[in-house]
Amino acid sequence: MMIDVTVNEIIDLAAVSGRQLLFADEAGALLKSIGIPVSPCRVALDEEETVQAAAAIGYPVVLKVRSPEVVHKSEVGGVCLALTGEYSVRSAYREMMRKARMVDRQAQVTVQPMAVPGVEVLIGMTTDAQFGQVVAFGLGGIFVEVLDDITFRQVPLQEKDALDMLLSIKGSTILKGYRGSGPVDTNALTEIILNISKLAEHHPRIREIDLNPVFAYPVGALVVDARIVIF
């Protein structure tokens, strides 16, 4: 199948490069290939390409450092949000590269649109020594650390398992609508959960998946940030 070829090609490219962590653009391409909605992500090699990519995507945009040597982007100022014009993009790029290239002289950046906010959830997968592959779901953003409200199910999942995950977290009321806000599209979230389960089942070289945040909307959902680790 073409989808399998695409996933395997992306994993092979990282493995041949000696990396276990996929770049954000690679993770996005992998997820997109299996039908998961992701925020567009362009790689820029220098300042001019960064400015051109931002203009093509449309403001506001987000810049993130792209380097195998930078795992935790925030430690080197590797994320700049809500940039609204060429001047701010150039300034952010120069400062980001000044710091990142102290760690990796080959560091690049990715450019993404600033996504419309929604209800933040996380969807992920990890490989547990006892239970094997398990899929995770919970509230994302600040709720992760504050509430620690995450539920897990073993791979493979059926639709009823995914729906049960949405209902079993303590914060499920937020998904149903609160303080005048409407409910989120639980069908869209269920589909992402099931696609992650299938991805893990058919590609055991994937060790971890962390989609956080995923913005859940009244109609649809969007993966804003993705982290994928391979064996």
Q: Can you characterise this structure?
A:
This protein is of the alpha+beta class and 231 residues long. It folds into two domains: 2-113, ATP-grasp fold, A domain (Dna Ligase, domain 1); 119-230, D-amino Acid Aminotransferase, Chain A, domain 1 (2-Layer Sandwich), CATH 3.30.470.20. The chain has helices spanning 2-16, 24-33, 47-57, 86-100, 143-147, 159-168, 172-176, 186-202; strands spanning 42-44, 61-66, 79-83, 108-113, 119-128, 132-139, 150-154, 206-216, 221-223, 226-230. The strands form two sheets. Strands 5, 6, 7, 8, 9 and 10 form a six-stranded antiparallel sheet that branches. β8 (206-216) and β9 (221-223) form a beta hairpin. The radius of gyration is 18 Å and the shape is globular. The two termini are 22 Å apart. 35% of the residues are buried.
Short synopsis of the structure:
The protein is α+β, with helices and mostly antiparallel strands and 231 residues long.
